[in-house]
């Protein structure tokens, strides 16, 4: 047989040939020893199983005898009304050639013997347990024999309740020959012993042979034995019995030297080595070509080429190639998924654009299910009766976006969908999103709720004409994509919150200094374009420290919030009211209004602030001092205008406060 270049040039092939040769020779050398050992072990195990089966058969035979004896005793007790006393019953046993009992004794509950053996001794502890025996129930008790060197008595005890409600114990001593049979009937090469188990103690009930009858020079520890435990609690409310069968001759063994020197063994060994060598070379050749294909396929995957491997025939290599191709397909899918997620995550990290992320998510979903429609509805605003959702639809070009009002009851239903729910879409559905998808031509719908911080912020609906598979592997990726939408929505919400906290005062909700600078600069730019004046009003509350000191800081905070609300109500939407710090406010009055109008605004502000305010059950009357600077006469930039208005405010305080 010619060895191909693939094999001769392959290190793996050469190593496989060497290993197979070693693997063929070493087993041949060790085969005899291991076979001989295994043979002896098998013989031992087989012998043990036979002995266990013997023990089981003896146990079942004894159990059958016990059950028959109990049934016979019950029958004769039931018919005892035809006899004068217990002796008549026992005589009847003898007449019917029933030798299962050696004696039958009736005992009252107090231990007094009514009939039977008058000298019979019943242990006190046994009597106490027998009193507890239920009516018409039986048990087995083992009592020491009154004769020396004889096995203990085995008594079948039955609690009988007569028609007069009188309870009587029937104690029948079982004949050992009936229960165990004759010892000469047992095989001479085996020994059977029966024991009653009581926790860790064993009471010998019967033995077919004595220890001195064992095989010559055979130690007890070397005897092969098998045991079977007979469960008696169910039928006789008694401790279990253990049956042990011992074989009285040594185990079979084989001669190792004889086996090795046999011509048959030598011929079989050489022929086996030749066949193993030939088959090994053939298998190596069949192995190397598919293995080479698998190696090439692995290298292609490393370079990004996921093309499948083709291996003909039906073998483990063809199955391995199928598994390899399946793994390659999954790796390609997972890599594509990770690349898609990475692209979306980069966009989320670079800029917070909800519409862009939704567009990228839609594109990926259309790749996974090109024949489906996709709708991502994002929460826009919420009321007590319904929520407004901005719905983006992919797969239906004439309807890219729309507003979708959804009642609260429908929102609650969507929230309960968990990991997504498949439903049939109907035009007469009670839910808006289901009717919408039905109008677009879908018959089935998969809806997945999108949460952020436990609240529904959006949901994804996928519609199709065919019923969806609940075990579709794409659902997991759809959930991950939908969670990206939740991520960007949460990022936008956090950004808006941070922007709000950075530009607005936490207490009053008015613009802070940072936003005031922007608004004032915008007002200056507008004044330059329209050549109109711009007023900057600096307002400070009079005696605000007195409120804080007398009523506390909480009351002072409530006063500042109320002042902020009144300032907003007395100014226009184009004006800016900002909290400058402490009890100081800045108002930017812009627009084309004349000086008289601006002064009237100041008067309204002072009157509004002077209105009584009720805080903590007390009425407070406040006044304020106001300073005004006008652009461009009193300053060319925001900083100088605020500074000059502040100076003017202090001048008003010096003139008596409650002034401007």
Give structural notes:
It is a single chain. The protein has 660 residues and is α+β, with helices and mostly antiparallel strands. The protein has 4 domains: 64-179, Beta-Lactamase, CATH 3.30.450; 287-350; 353-497, 2-Layer Sandwich (Beta-Lactamase); 504-654, Alpha-Beta Plaits, CATH 3.30.70. Helix content is 48%, strand content 22%. It contains 18 helices and 21 strands. The chain has helices at 5-8, 11-78, 86-95, 124-131, 176-180, 233-236, 256-261, 263-302, 316-350, 354-368, 408-415, 432-439, 474-503, 513-530, 544-551, 553-569, 595-610, 638-654, and strands at 101-107, 113-115, 138-143, 153-161, 167-174, 190-198, 201-207, 225-230, 241-247, 373-382, 386-394, 401-407, 421-424, 444-452, 455-464, 534-541, 576-581, 584-589, 613-615, 618-620, 624-631. Strands 12-11-10-15-14-13 form a 6-stranded antiparallel beta sheet. A 5-stranded antiparallel beta sheet has the order 2-1-5-4-3. A 4-stranded antiparallel beta sheet has the order 7-6-9-8, covered by helices on one side. α2 crosses α8 (263-302), α9 packs parallel to α13 (474-503) and α15 crosses α16. The longest helix is centred in the N-terminal third of the chain and has 68 residues, at 11-78. Residues 215-223 have low confidence and may be disordered.
